[in-house]
Write a structure and sequence with these properties.
The chain is built from 5 helices and 5 strands; from the N terminus they run E-H-H-E-H-E-H-E-E-H. By secondary structure, the chain is α/β, with parallel strands linked by helices. The protein has one domain: Dehydroquinase, class II (Rossmann fold), CATH 3.40.50. Helix 4 links the parallel strand 3 and strand 4. Bound molecules: 1,3,4-trihydroxy-5-OXO-cyclohexanecarboxylic acid. 1,3,4-trihydroxy-5-OXO-cyclohexanecarboxylic acid (DQA) binds next to loops.
């Protein structure tokens, strides 16, 4: 399988920002581990990271025919971006929503994602392992 892992707004600061919540490993380190994890199982993981909502929508749209699945951590956009929701609903590629933190144990505004309804499923609360578990969901 060929899978695309998309990280949205502020995720490029992972490893530096709010380390108690998101850990100390950088996104590059996490992505390298995920690439190796997928490769060891005969799959390919590719990556796209952007702070920009429109770029995230375009990347989701362009995944059609190129990827078997998308793993998406849209960051704070998850809680209010109808544009990203529409992009997910429009693309014929299954999307698994990911959050590193347990958003239900945090501030009220994080408890709702406008994306979940149009995603295949959601994995949250396991730190960087949330991404690995999302990969695994495509392998089973
Ligand atoms: C996050 C949770 C969001 O609420 C937050 O805005 C993020 C990261 C997570 O991975 O836990 O940027 O998506």
């Amino acid at each position: 399988m060929k899978l695309l892992i998309i990280n949205g707004v502020n995720l490029s600061s992972t490893g530096r920002r709010e380390q108690a919540v998101y850990g100390t490993r950088t996104l590059d380190e996490i992505n390298a581990s995920l690439k190796a994890y997928a490769a060891a199982r005969g799959h390919t993981a590719e990556f796209f990271t952007s702070d920009l909502e429109g770029e995230l929508c375009a990347e989701i749209a362009h995944a059609e025919g190129k990827y078997d699945g998308i793993i998406l951590n849209a960051g704070a956009y998850s809680h209010y971006s109808y544009a990203i929701r529409d992009a997910i609903a429009s693309v014929g590629v299954p999307v698994v929503e990911v959050h590193m933190s347990n958003v239900h144990a945090r501030e009220e505004f994080r408890r709702h994602s406008v994306l979940t309804e149009v995603c295949k499923g959601e994995i949250l609360g396991f730190g960087e392992d949330s991404y690995r578990l999302a990969l695994e969901s495509f392998f089973v």
